[in-house]
Amino acid sequence: MTEYKKVQLTLPDDVRVAFETIGEDLDTRNLYIAKLRGLGWTLQSVSEVTGITRERVRQIAVSYAGEVSALPGGLPLPTPPLKPVKTPKVYTEPDPGKLARLLTLQPLAQQNRASSEEFRVSAEQYTALVWEVHNDDGVPLYRLAKRLGVTHGALRFRLARYGYKLPGTGKSKVYTRIDPNNRVAV
């Protein structure tokens, strides 16, 4: 939850009118200032309404803090507006079963080399499952990469190499696709 600083709070006009009606009664004024500070109004907002400095408002609020119950009735006591609270982001997590399968295929898929056929099937299954989790289940590559212990760039490269993800133009000098003759049907 994000904590927000209270800034630019403005007391309503009826509080300004109340301070004008109090006049020269300093005890009532000071009790009223302490009550407003106790409700959560900022030093600046009370200072603007009363015409005294923020420091003096702070001193008054400290000295009259225990006597707030003696405030005469009829004075408006507005509450400050609520602080905005950011809603936490919800991230899509990979399915635990698919994640376990990816973690078992991962060491085999990483051993795949162009000239060997030994780990080719595991590499194809691993890449197809990565694409399924990313594309169909909606898990971001970054989150999936964190769960697999690799970089998201490595997953993106693997998907491009195996032809699942292509650049916007359809051609890339960096990611060369695997020759279809070296692919294994999954």
Can you describe what's shown?
The chain is mostly helical and 186 residues long. It folds into two domains: 13-70; 96-182, no CATH class. Helices cover 49% and strands 0% of the residues. The chain starts with 12 loop residues before the first helix and ends in a 25-residue tail after the last helix.
Helix content: 40-55%
- Work out the count of structural domains: 2
Content of β-strand: under 5%
Task: Pick out the low-confidence regions.
Answer: none
Distance between the termini: 45 Å
What is the mean predicted local confidence, pLDDT?
84
Largest sheet: none
Number of strands: 0
Tally of helical runs: 8
Shape annotation: rod-shaped
Radius of gyration, CA atoms, in whole angstroms: 33 Å
Topology:
Elements: H1 13-22, H2 26-39, H3 43-50, H4 54-63, H5 96-110, H6 120-136, H7 141-148, H8 152-161
Helix pairs in contact: 2-4, 3-4, 5-6, 7-8
